[in-house]
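Anyone? Bumping this.
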Amino acid sequence: MDFSISRLFQLINKDILLYKKKVLLAIVVAIFVTFFATVLAHNLVSLNAGGGIQGLFLLYIFLLLIGGGFLTSTNLGDLRSVSSRISYVGIPASTLEKLVCKLLYTLPLYAGGVSLLIWIFFKGYMAMYGDVLPAEALGIAEKMSTVLPLYFLRLYVFGHAVALFFSFFYNTYASIKGALVCITAFLSFCFIRSFFITDRGFGLLENFGQSTWEVSSYLSMQPNAFMVLAPIFWVLSYFVFKRKSV
Amino acid sequence: MISISDMTYSYPKKQPLFEDMNLQFEQGKIYGLLGKNGMGKSTLLKLIGGYLFPKKGLVKLNGEEPQNRRPHLMEQIFFLSEEFNLPSLSIRQYLAAFSPFYSAFDNARFYNILDELGIDADVKLQQLSYGQKKKFIISFGLATGAKYLIFDEPTNGLDIPSKIDFRKIIAEHITTNEQIVIISTHQINDLEHLLDAIAIIDEGKIVMIKEISEIEESVLFTTASTLSESDAVIYHQRIPGGYLMISENKDGQPSKIEIEAFFNAVTQNKTFFSKLLNR
């Protein structure tokens, strides 16, 4: 397996030259959205202190997940058309080097960068308004700021690995197709499982709803299991990319 | 050397395009890969470049399989596809982004070729016309020092002066005996005086692959105002002022290939030419 640090840096350098305008634009948008989320949450705090703080965190998380999904699927625009696939596949660097390059800035750089941005905004907000927040909101803020970021970072790692796999698997509309496959797989599993819920005496539809709720709740409690699944999708991504025809 | 042995390839859910194909391209030669549209020229070039994977058999470049996409081999391959896209960069930025991947990249040669082609090195790629973009990529490819230069329909979309420029720079800058150049085209006349050998592909098969000099030794190309009634004429076509006739060159007469007529003759009389040229 070929891997050279110098070629990895050459790939990063190439991507910086190619995408620097888009990256700068994305940073500006991320700052704007985080600022907007903070302002919105501050207004909500005046109506409902606890709910406002929760809203702030949820908006931050939404930003992390949606932004990451968008970045992961669009940075693989290199594979969208036949001509762009030929240019990208033809670059004299190994599959592993190309994969690591994409991984680097969609995973540690992106998640780290966005988390830092959120942390700065949150700390800034608390510094400005922490004194006037009701005790209930402060309690929620403290709890959420210690538990949620790690939880959702683990979820992001998993989501990223799945998005990366589908980005290599599909050439066009990868994020939409990938999301549809995941939703279909999830609902199919829940539907099949609903046949085995026999002790409640409900109809199939009610059992399906119950099954979906139970599976979702169970999965949401297993962030570490997601972390274990992520490397599997990275390895699958490697092999799909390695055998990618143009 | 590029060797293809017992290779079968088919696109998903389609009949095999190539079945048990055997073919060799030798170093130090410029090959014209000729064929009608849809006969598999681009597919064959992509298989050689490692962009597609044979279903069966092997494609090897000096003993290595391009489908493994190993960097040291990939920097020896330069593939110009019929459709290409260039990023929104200046020429110098493009060079900074892509040339470091080619250890033998020759900056001086690149700028010399650009200069010869009259392309300003300070412009943005998106400001270039289609023909200029194509010339730019060809210049880049020649400067990479790649051993395997694969051009898929390089003269499509070029105006007449650009086609002349293309022939000129290829002839001037293929300098080592280690290089193999394969140029696919269905505009055969664009490559006249440039090729060392011809490979003709038809209905998914290599009908023949021969050096031009060998073809001229075996095949006689003559022109006359009237059509010869002789049985020796294998193929004829009307040209301004008379006929171009192709017959067997039994007496070893001086002969000058007319590629377009030869291509038509071969695709219409595959068995005959196969026997004649493989004697």
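Late reply, but here is one note on the structure posted above: The CA atoms of residues 4 and 59 of chain B lie 5 Å apart.
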